[in-house]
């Protein structure tokens, strides 16, 4: 896995209990559009595949977008507060660029999930920032955590909002010939 995200590791373990994490050593350009996420995930997958040419490599990059503006990981709590205020009271999209590579074979997908936040008060945002670590989360929230209280509706893959769209990942792995082992622990 070409990612050091603890959430992605946790999700991948749902159907691949054992794998190696190799943080890609690539420069991350600023994400301005969902297409940039796919380009970045491809760059990460290719960097790790170059080091491990026989491995099946999974790479992903996720960001939140609202009205054409990207919300990646906030640099501090003030920016996190601004992000949550901007997402309050409306729909936003969570995009993940997902790439699976095995040798020269590469599959990619850009996955979108739409999320509706109810209107949040300044007090609710302050509470949330005190009880949840958000500086490593796109959009400054964790849907699987206490931010669940802010979500009125979701359209699409819930796991995409956590950073790894499992249904799409399964399809891409399957296309490349990966199959889970029935009698033993599947490995990649």
Describe what is shown at a glance.
The chain is about 30% helix and about 25% strand. The model has no long low-confidence stretch (mean pLDDT about 95).
Give, in order, the helices and strands: HHEEHEEHEHH
Number of discrete helical segments: 6
CATH top-level class? Alpha Beta
Write down the domain tally. Answer: 1
The low-confidence runs, each spanning 5 or more residues with pLDDT under 50, are none
Summed over residues and divided by their number, the pLDDT gives a mean of: 93
| CATH architectural arrangement | Alpha-Beta Complex
Report the radius of gyration as a whole number of Å. 17 Å
State the secondary-structure class: alpha+beta
- Identify the overall geometry: elongated
| Secondary structure tally: strands | 5
């Amino acid at each position: 896995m070409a990612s050091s995200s603890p959430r992605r590791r946790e999700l991948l373990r749902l159907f691949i209990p054992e794998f190696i994490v190799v943080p890609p050593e690539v420069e991350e350009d600023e994400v301005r559009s969902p297409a940039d996420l796919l380009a970045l995930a491809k760059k990460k997958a290719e960097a790790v595949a170059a080091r491990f040419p026989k491995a099946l490599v999974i790479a992903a990059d996720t960001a939140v977008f609202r009205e054409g503006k990207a919300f990646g990981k906030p640099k501090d709590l003030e920016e996190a507060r601004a992000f949550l205020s901007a997402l309050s009271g409306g729909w936003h999209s969570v995009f993940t660029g997902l790439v699976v590579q095995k040798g020269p074979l590469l599959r990619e997908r850009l996955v979108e999930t739409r999320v509706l936040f109810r209107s949040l008060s300044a007090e609710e945002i302050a509470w949330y920032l005190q009880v949840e670590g958000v500086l490593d989360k796109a959009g400054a929230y964790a849907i699987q955590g206490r931010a669940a209280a802010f979500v009125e509706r979701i359209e699409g893959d819930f796991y995409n909002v956590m950073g790894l769209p499992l249904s799409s990942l399964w399809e891409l792995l399957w296309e490349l010939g990966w199959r889970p082992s029935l009698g033993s622990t599947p490995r990649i």
